[in-house]
C-alpha cells in the first residue's frame, strides 16, 4: 500500500511539473482566396494543471510576424542576407487584424509584447488557480503572406500552404511561459492540444490537413466545401489547399500518411512498400504508444532543408541545362531511392516532433540529431555503401558519355566519391576547418544558417552513431526509448539520465565534451616505437577533451585489430598493440567522428619507408589520410592587357575543406609577354575557440607580373594577421589587424619612359579593419599606416550603406589621408583624387599604366574616390573627401563627390563632381557617367568633346565574385 501511495504521489508530482497547461481548441475558419485571408472564430479551453496561479496568458500569434520590417522575423531575414521580405510591399506581407478576446462575453484586455509583436499577452481579470479552467473566445482575420518568405503562405498558382496560421497558447513548462517569436525555424513549442477544426473554402480546392478528416460536405448553392477535422494530443497543424490534388494517402496500421513525395511514381506499389518499410523501421527503433494518427509528409517542407548531396547535384544539372539549353534527366540516386530518402526525412522529423515534446528552440538538436541518427541506421540497414552520385545525370534523348564526364568535371570529387551517409561527417569537418562551428546543444535561434540547416543536426546524429559504437546498439536503443517514454515534457537532462542509466560506462563526455563544446576533436599520433612483436604509440590529446577513441592496425582497406581507449584529460596516452605486419597505425580508423585534422591520425609503419606515399590527383579535392596530397589543375587567366591570355598549372594542397597549412603555387605562361609569370604562397593558420581572437595567420607570398609593356614587377610579401569576431557569429561582424612587409622590385622595358624615380622599394604596412556586413546597415572602417624609406602616411576610410525598404540605397564614404613625412620629390606615392597609383599592386587594374584608351577609364574606389578626370589629380600633403550615392530606381543612382585637398607649398582647394551611376552588381560591375565637376573651367562634363572618354567603369571577374553567393550560408 505504501508503494502505491509513493507511486501515486510521484505521478501527481510529474503531472504538476510537466503537464502544466492543457488546452482544447475549436476553430471555425473560412478561407478567402481572393483576399488571401482567413476569417477565424475560435474557442480555447485552457486548464491550469500546474501548482501556480496564472495572472496572464501568453498566446503565439505567428501570423503577425509577417506584419512589417521591425518584427523579429524580418530582422532574422536581414541578418541572413535575405532582402525579399524587407523590400516587399505591404500587400505581400501577412498580419492578424481585428483581434478580440473575450470570456463569458466580457472583453479582455491584451497587448503585444514590445519587440515581439507576434506574442500576445492576455491579462486575466481573475487569477486562474490550479486545476481551474477558462474559456477564451477569439475572433480575428489573418492575412496570408506570400510563400517565398518561409515556404508557407499563398503560392503563385493561388494555392495555400499553411503552418502557424492560428493563435495558440504559448508553451508553459517547468512553471514558466516560453515566449518564442517566429524566426522561420519550424520550431513552435506547444503543449499537447486537442483540436476540432471546421474549414469553409471554395469548392474548386482540395484540402489536405494533418488532423483526421471526419467529413467533407459540398454546398452546391454557394459552390463551397465544409470540412471537419479532429485530433487529440497534437502539437503542429498543417493545411494545404490545392487546385489540383498533389497528395496520395496511405494507410499503415492505425496511421494515415498523406504525401506528395511519390506523386509521380508509375507503379503504385512502390510508394506503399517504401512507406511500410520506413514506418516499420522507425517504430522498431522508437517504441512508443503515442504514435500520431496522421502525418503530412510534404515535399515543400523538405525543400526548405534538403539533403546536402542531392541538392548540390540538382543545382549543378540545372546550371548546365541553362548554360547549354539541353534538358537533363536526373538519375543520381534513382527516383525510387531518392523519393524514399526524401519521405524518410520528412516523416521521421514530423514523427519525432509529435512523440518527443521538447522546447523546440532550446532543445531542437535532440529531435534533429535523432532524425540524422535514424537516417544513418536506415542507410546501413537497407543501402550500405550507397553513394550520393550513384548514376550521373544523363542528357534526355542523347545519352552522351562525354557530356556525363563534363558533369563529373563540374562536381567536386569529394561529392562523387562520397557515400550518402558520409555527407553528415563531411559537413561537420567543413565547419570545423573554417572555425564556423557552434556548440551542438546551442539554441536554434543562436545558430548561423549553415549550422542550423545542416551542420548541427549532422553533428548530433554522427555523435549518436559514435555513442552507439561505444556503448552498444541495444543499450543506446534502450536509452532512447526510455527517454521517449518519460514524462510528457522532456529536456536534455532527461536524455542524459536515460543514456547514463542504460550503460555502466561513463558517458558524461558525450554531453560535456562533444555536444557542449565547440572545440574540435584532434588526437595525434606523436611518436611510434617498436619492440620485437609489439608497436607502442604515444597519442596526444591536443584539445584536452575526454572523448574515447579507437586505435587500430590497418592493412590495405582492412582493419586488422582495434581497441577503445579512454583518454586521460590533459595528458597523452601510450598504447601497445601486437605487431601484425600492418601498413598503418590509425586513430578513428572508421572515420565516425568529426576531427579537425585527420592527417595526424595515420602513421605509416612499414620499415622501409616512414613518410606517407605522395599522391597527385588531377582536379582533386578529396583528401587521403593515407597519402601526402598534391592537387594540380590547369589555369587559364586574363590578369591584364600586358600579359594577355596566360595558361599554366596550379599545384596546391587545398581541398574542399579548409586547411590549416596552405601551399599554393601557380606558374603560368603569358602569351602577351612570352614569359613565365605567376606566383605562390604559404600560409599557416592557428584557430582559437570561444575567444574574440579566433584566428592568427602568417605567411609568405611571391608574385611576378607585368604593370606596363615589357615592364615587370616582382613582389615579396611577409604577413602576420590577427582576426577577431564577436561571440555571436550571427552578427556578420569582424575585424582584423595585419602587419605586412612588402618588397617590390621593378624593371622597365626599352620603349617605356620612366615616369617616377622609385624602382625598388619596401613598405611596412599596419592595417586595422572593422566590417559589419549587414544587408540593411553596412559599416566598414579601415585605418592604414604605411612606412617606407622616403615617406610615411596614415589613411582612414569609413563606409556606410543604408538600404531603405522602398529598395533605395544610400551610400556614404569618408576618406582622410595625410603624409606624416615625405622626403622625395616624386609623386609616385602621392594620393590621387580619382585614379590611385597601385604601388602595392593590390587593386585589380587591367591596364595599370594606361593614360589613354578604355583601360585608363577603369575605376577603383580608393583614396579620393572621384569619378571625373582631373588634369592634376595627385595630392602631396593631405586630402579629406566624401563620396555619396543614392539610388533612384533599382540599379540607377546619382552620386556626388566632395573634398578638400592640400599640397605642400600650396593652398588648399575644394573639389567636387557628380553624375549618374549604374550599379548593376556593387563593387563588381558598375558604370559612371559624370555630369558636373570642378575639374576645369567648363564644369558640365557632358558638354566637353569626346564625352565617351569620361565614362568610368568597374569590372571584376574572378573567384571573389562567388563570395557574393556564399554569404547566405555563413
Give a brief outline of the structure.
With 970 residues, this protein is an alpha+beta fold.
Could you explain how this protein is built, in words?
With 970 residues, this protein is an alpha+beta fold. It contains 15 helices and 50 strands. It has a 16-stranded antiparallel beta sheet with strand order 33-34-35-36-37-38-39-40-41-42-43-46-47-48-49-50, with no helix packed on it. The protein has an 8-stranded mixed beta sheet with strand order 5-4-8-2-1-14-17-16, with no helix packed on it. Helix 8 (364-382) crosses helix 12, helix 11 (422-433) packs across helix 12 and helix 13 runs antiparallel to helix 14. The longest helix is centred in the middle third of the chain and has 23 residues, at 449-471. It is globular and about 90 Å long. Mean pLDDT is 86; it is low at 1-19, 323-332, 392-400 and 964-970.
Mean pLDDT: 86
Task: Compute the number of strand runs.
Answer: 50
Walk across the major sheet and give the strand order: 33-34-35-36-37-38-39-40-41-42-43-46-47-48-49-50
Oligomer: single chain
Q: Which ranges are low-confidence, i.e. pLDDT below 50, for 5 or more consecutive residues?
A: 1-19, 323-332, 392-400, 964-970
Q: Structural class per helix/strand content? A: alpha+beta
Radius of gyration: 33 Å
> What composes the largest sheet?
16 strands, antiparallel
Number of discrete helical segments: 15
Amino acid at each position: 500500500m505504501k508503494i502505491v501511495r509513493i507511486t501515486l504521489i510521484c505521478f501527481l508530482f510529474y503531472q504538476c511539473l510537466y503537464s502544466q497547461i492543457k488546452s482544447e481548441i475549436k476553430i471555425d475558419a473560412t478561407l478567402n482566396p481572393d483576399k488571401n485571408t482567413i476569417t477565424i472564430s475560435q474557442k480555447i479551453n485552457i486548464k491550469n494543471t500546474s501548482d501556480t496561479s496564472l495572472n496572464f496568458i501568453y498566446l503565439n500569434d505567428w501570423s503577425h510576424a509577417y506584419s512589417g520590417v521591425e518584427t523579429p522575423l524580418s530582422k532574422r531575414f536581414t541578418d541572413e542576407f535575405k532582402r525579399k521580405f524587407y523590400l516587399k510591399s505591404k500587400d505581400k506581407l501577412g498580419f492578424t487584424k481585428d483581434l478580440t478576446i473575450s470570456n463569458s462575453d466580457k472583453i479582455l484586455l491584451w497587448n503585444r509584447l514590445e519587440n515581439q509583436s507576434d506574442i500576445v499577452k492576455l491579462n486575466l481579470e481573475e487569477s486562474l488557480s490550479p486545476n481551474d479552467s477558462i474559456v477564451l473566445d477569439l475572433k480575428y482575420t489573418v492575412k496570408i503572406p506570400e510563400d517565398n518568405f518561409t515556404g508557407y503562405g499563398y503560392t503563385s498558382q493561388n494555392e495555400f500552404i499553411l503552418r502557424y496560421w492560428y493563435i495558440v497558447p504559448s508553451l508553459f513548462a517547468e512553471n514558466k511561459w516560453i515566449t518564442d517569436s517566429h524566426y522561420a525555424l519550424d520550431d513552435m513549442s506547444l503543449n499537447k492540444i486537442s483540436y476540432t477544426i471546421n474549414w469553409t473554402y471554395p469548392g474548386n480546392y482540395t484540402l489536405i490537413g494533418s488532423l483526421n478528416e471526419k467529413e467533407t460536405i459540398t454546398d452546391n448553392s454557394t459552390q463551397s466545401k465544409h470540412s471537419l477535422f479532429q485530433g487529440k494530443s497534437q502539437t503542429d497543424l498543417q493545411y494545404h489547399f490545392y487546385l489540383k490534388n498533389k497528395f496520395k494517402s496511405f494507410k499503415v496500421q492505425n496511421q494515415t500518411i498523406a504525401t506528395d513525395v511519390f506523386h509521380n511514381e508509375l507503379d503504385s506499389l512502390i510508394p506503399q512498400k517504401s512507406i511500410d518499410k520506413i514506418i516499420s523501421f522507425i517504430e522498431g527503433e522508437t517504441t512508443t504508444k503515442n504514435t500520431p494518427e496522421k502525418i503530412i509528409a510534404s515535399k515543400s517542407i523538405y525543400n526548405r532543408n534538403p539533403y546536402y548531396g542531392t541538392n548540390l547535384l540538382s543545382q549543378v544539372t540545372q546550371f548546365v541545362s541553362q548554360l547549354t539549353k539541353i534538358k537533363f534527366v536526373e538519375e543520381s540516386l534513382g527516383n525510387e531511392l531518392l523519393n524514399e530518402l526524401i519521405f524518410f526525412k520528412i516523416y521521421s522529423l514530423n514523427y519525432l516532433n509529435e512523440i518527443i515534446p521538447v522546447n523546440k528552440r532550446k532543445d531542437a538538436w535532440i529531435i534533429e540529431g535523432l532524425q540524422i541518427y535514424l537516417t544513418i541506421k536506415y542507410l546501413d540497414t537497407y543501402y550500405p555503401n550507397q553513394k550520393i552520385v550513384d548514376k550521373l545525370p544523363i542528357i534526355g534523348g542523347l545519352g552522351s558519355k562525354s557530356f556525363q564526364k563534363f558533369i563529373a568535371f563540374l562536381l567536386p570529387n569529394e561529392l562523387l566519391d562520397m557515400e550518402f551517409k558520409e555527407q553528415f561527417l563531411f559537413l561537420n569537418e567543413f565547419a570545423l576547418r573554417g572555425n564556423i562551428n557552434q556548440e551542438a546543444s546551442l539554441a536554434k535561434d543562436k545558430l548561423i544558417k549553415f549550422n542550423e540547416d545542416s551542420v548541427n543536426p549532422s553533428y548530433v546524429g554522427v555523435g549518436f552513431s559514435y555513442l552507439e559504437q561505444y556503448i552498444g546498439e541495444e543499450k543506446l536503443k534502450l536509452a532512447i526509448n526510455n527517454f521517449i517514454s518519460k514524462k510528457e515534457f522532456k529536456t536534455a537532462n532527461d536524455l542524459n539520465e536515460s543514456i547514463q542509466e542504460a550503460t555502466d560506462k561513463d558517458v558524461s563526455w558525450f554531453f560535456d565534451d562533444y555536444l557542449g563544446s565547440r572545440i574540435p576533436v584532434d588526437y595525434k599520433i606523436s611518436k611510434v616505437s617498436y619492440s620485437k612483436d609489439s608497436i607502442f604509440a604515444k597519442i596526444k590529446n591536443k584539445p584536452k577533451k575526454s572523448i574515447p577513441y579507437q586505435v587500430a592496425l590497418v592493412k590495405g582497406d582492412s582493419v586488422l585489430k582495434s581497441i577503445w581507449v579512454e583518454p586521460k584529460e590533459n595528458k597523452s596516452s601510450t598504447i601497445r598493440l601486437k605487431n601484425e605486419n600492418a601498413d598503418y597505425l590509425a586513430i578513428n580508423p572508421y572515420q565516425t567522428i568529426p576531427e579537425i585534422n585527420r592527417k595526424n591520425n595515420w602513421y605509416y609503419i612499414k620499415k622501409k619507408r616512414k613518410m606517407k606515399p605522395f599522391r597527385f590527383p588531377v582536379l582533386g579535392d578529396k583528401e587521403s589520410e593515407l597519402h601526402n596530397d598534391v592537387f594540380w589543375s590547369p589555369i587559364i587567366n586574363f590578369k591584364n592587357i600586358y600579359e594577355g591570355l596566360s595558361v599554366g598549372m596550379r599545384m596546391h594542397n587545398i581541398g574542399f575543406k579548409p586547411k590549416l597549412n596552405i601551399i599554393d603555387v601557380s606558374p603560368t605562361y603569358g602569351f602577351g609577354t612570352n614569359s613565365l609569370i605567376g606566383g605562390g604562397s604559404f600560409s599557416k593558420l592557428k584557430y582559437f575557440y570561444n575567444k574574440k581572437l579566433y584566428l592568427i595567420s602568417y605567411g609568405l607570398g611571391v608574385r611576378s607580373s607585368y604593370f606596363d609593356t615589357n615592364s615587370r614587377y616582382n613582389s615579396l610579401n611577409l604577413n602576420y594577421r590577427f582576426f577577431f569576431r564577436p561571440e555571436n557569429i550571427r552578427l556578420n561582424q569582424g575585424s582584423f589587424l595585419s602587419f605586412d612587409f612588402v618588397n617590390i622590385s621593378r624593371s622597365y622595358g626599352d620603349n617605356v619612359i620612366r615616369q617616377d624615380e622609385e624602382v625598388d622599394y619596401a613598405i611596412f604596412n599596419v592595417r586595422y579593419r572593422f566590417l559589419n556586413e549587414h544587408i540593411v546597415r553596412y559599416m566598414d572602417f579601415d585605418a592604414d599606416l604605411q612606412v617606407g624609406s622616403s615617406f610615411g602616411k596614415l589613411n582612414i576610410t569609413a563606409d556606410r550603406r543604408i538600404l531603405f525598404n522602398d529598395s533605395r540605397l544610400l551610400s556614404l564614404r569618408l576618406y582622410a589621408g595625410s603624409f606624416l613625412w615625405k622626403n622625395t620629390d616624386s609623386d609616385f606615392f602621392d594620393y590621387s583624387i580619382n585614379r590611385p597609383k597601385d604601388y602595392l599592386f593590390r587593386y585589380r587594374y587591367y591596364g595599370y599604366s594606361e593614360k589613354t584608351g578604355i583601360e585608363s577609364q577603369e575605376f577603383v574606389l580608393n583614396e579620393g574616390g572621384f569619378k571625373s578626370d582631373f588634369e592634376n589629380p595627385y595630392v602631396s600633403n593631405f586630402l579629406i573627401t566624401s563620396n555619396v550615392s543614392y539610388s533612384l530606381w533599382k540599379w540607377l543612382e546619382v552620386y556626388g563627390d566632395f573634398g578638400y585637398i592640400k599640397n605642400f607649398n600650396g593652398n588648399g582647394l575644394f573639389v567636387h563632381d557628380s553624375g549618374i551611376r549604374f550599379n548593376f552588381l556593387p563593387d563588381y560591375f558598375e558604370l559612371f557617367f559624370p555630369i558636373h565637376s570642378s575639374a576645369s573651367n567648363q564644369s558640365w562634363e557632358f558638354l566637353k568633346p569626346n564625352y565617351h572618354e569620361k565614362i568610368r567603369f568597374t569590372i571584376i571577374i574572378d573567384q571573389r565574385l562567388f563570395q557574393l553567393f556564399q554569404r547566405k550560408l555563413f
